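Deviations from the work plan: none for this task. Representative record:
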Amino acid sequence: MDRVKLFIPLIIFVVLAAMLYWGLGRDPNAMPSALISRPVPAFQLPELGQLKDADDTTLVVTSQSELLDETIFLGQVSLLNVWATWCISCRVEHPYLLDIAETGVRIIGLNYKDEVEAAQQWLAKYGDPYEQTISDTTGGLGLDLGVFGAPETYLIDHLGVIHYKHVGVVDDRVWRTTLQPKYQQLRNTLPEAAK
Amino acid sequence: MIVEPQRNSSVCFLRGRFVSFRKATLLLLLSVLCLPVWGLIEVDRLSSPALSERYQYLVAEYRCPKCQNQNLAESNSPISIDLRTEIRRLLEEGASDAQISDYLVARYGEFVLYRPKVQSSTYLLWLAPAVLLLLGLLIVVFIVRRQKRGVSSAQTGLSGVEQAELQALLGTAEKQKDKVVNPNEAESK
C-alpha cells in the first residue's frame, strides 16, 4: 500500500500533463455555431445589385428591389459566405471562393454591414463567386445567424438547415479537410432529382 | 542600550515605507474609481432609470463572442456594440431578463453566458468546486485522525530508561533555548 502511495504524485502529474497537453491543441477561438441543425433564420433582404460595368462610376443598382428570403437555400446544398469590403481576411479568401465556385459549388454571399456601392465595386473588380448576394447593411440577419465577425462560412443543406460553420478564411486546406467532405456528404444524401 | 536606536531606526524606515505605501494604495483606489465609467456608455438612451439599471447589469452578464475575455460592456468590438444595441431594443420592448438571455443563447450559444445554466452538460463545472472542497476536507480529517491515533498509541519503540533520557535531553534543550532568547535575563540571574 505504501509503495502504491509513492506513485500518487506521479499519477497526478501524468493526468495534469495530459490535460494541459490536450488544452494546448485546442483553438480557444473555436466556437461552434448555436444554429447547427437549425434552419436558416427567416429574413427578407434585398439582393446586392451589380454594377453594369466595372469602369462605370455611376453605380447603377440593378436589382436592389428584388427581395430575397430563406427559400433561396431550398433544393440545393449551398455555402453561405459572410463577407464585407472592410474585412481584410475576406479579400484573402476571395480568390479561393472564385476557384470553388468554378468547380460548381453553389455559394450564396451575405454582404454583412457594408456599403452597397463599395460591395458592388468589390465584386465588379475582383470577380463574383456568389450565385446571389444578400445585402444585409444593418447586420440583422448576421445577428440572427450568430455572426461575430467576417469571414464566416456556413454549410447549408437542400432543406435550408445549417450543418456547419467555419469561422475565418476558407483556404485550400480548410476546404479539402473540413468543408468539402461535409459538402460532398450532403450532396450524396440528396434525392437524385435535386442534383 | 544598543538595541534601542536600532529599533527606532527600523520604525522610522517602516514609517517611511508605510506613507509611500498609503499613497500608492490611494492612487490605486483612485484608478479603480475610473472603471465604472464604462457603465455610463449609452445608458442615457434608455427611457427609464429602471431600464438603465437592468441594462447596466445585463451588459456585464454576457461575454463578447469576439473578444472572449471581455463582457459586452467592456468590449468595443462591432459585435458587442450591436449586441448592446439589441439588448437596449429588447429592454425597451419590455423583454424579461430570461427572454434576453434566451435571445442571445439562441444566436451565440451558451458561450456568451458568464454564468452557465445548471444542466447535464455543466454539472461538472458547477459541482466540481464543492466536490473538490469536500475531498480536501476528507483528506485533512483523515490525516489529522491518523496522526492523533499515532500519538496516542505512542509506538516510539523506546524503553523506559531511554524515554527518561529523552525527556531529560528535551528539558535541557528547552532551558538552553530560554537562555538564547533572553540573554539579558540569564545574565541578570
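The helical segments of chain B are 3-33, 49-61, 78-92, 97-108, 123-153, 160-181, 183-188.
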